[in-house]
Specification:
Blueprint lengths: L1 H4 L20 H10 L1 H24 L9 E3 L5 H9 L7 E3 L4 E3 L7 E7 L2 E5 L2 E6 L4 E2 L2 H4 L8 E4 L3 E7 H10 L1 H22 L1
Parallel strand pairs: 1-6
Antiparallel strand pairs: 2-9, 3-8, 4-7, 4-9, 5-6, 5-8
Helix pairs in contact: 2-3, 2-7, 3-7, 6-7
Length: about 200
């Protein structure tokens, strides 16, 4: 996560047996994302696995609180991303009125969403854990593995305009745009860091 977010490490890793590791500096990491889209997908898969595990631990400990919800900064510039998507998908923007549910935990996800206008609240266990404004993304966890389900509820906190991205367009974006992959990894890392802090 440090290579993705440029923030200090949030955990300690210790080898419990003789191990061989590969180290990548920042330049090598970015080059890996550009040359090997599968590398970005592998990292996303690992982060989403950790998110699911962390959410499970928080539920067991009854430690989910809405008082310290993450206010996600824009992961994407909405207009630029809409232009990229227009070449890969025919899905038009979708609209949700204030307080309308958008996705529900446990649903099989077929699309992720980018907020174009408005605010979306993300809920875990009935508590708001994140608020997303224009450029924020949600729903990507269900696209990494085609059989995965939604890990949270998302509700329109205000009237919203959202850009849907299906799995095919998502995979194409990861392949053609290392910047898209890196921004998505940064968004996942911020969520994981925020939830991991609640475990302690």
């Amino acid at each position: 996560m440090t290579a993705i977010t440029q923030l200090p490490r949030s955990a300690t890793a210790v080898a419990n047996r003789a191990s061989t590791v590969i180290a990548l500096d920042d330049k090598q990491f970015r080059a890996g994302l550009a040359k090997q889209p599968a590398f970005a997908l592998m990292l996303m898969s690992i982060m989403i696995g950790r998110l699911r595990e962390t959410i499970g631990r928080l539920r067991v400990a009854n430690a989910l609180q809405g008082s310290d919800a993450l206010e996600q900064s824009a992961a994407f510039e909405p207009k630029r991303l809409a232009e990229l998507i227009a070449k890969l998908s025919d899905d038009p923007p979708v609209y949700f009125d204030r307080r309308k549910p958008i996705v529900q935990e446990g649903q099989v996800g077929t699309r992720m969403y980018v907020v174009l206008e408005g605010t979306v609240a993300v809920f875990l266990g009935g508590k708001v854990v994140e608020r997303l404004g224009p450029g924020g993304v949600f729903g990507e966890a269900a696209l990494i593995h085609s059989s995965s389900t939604r890990i949270a509820d998302a509700v329109a906190e205000s009237d919203c305009s959202l850009l849907p991205i299906d799995r095919k367009a998502f995979l194409s974006l990861v392949k053609v745009s290392p910047d898209f992959a890196q921004a998505l990894l940064s968004s996942l890392a911020a969520r994981l860091r925020n939830l991991t802090a609640k475990v302690r």
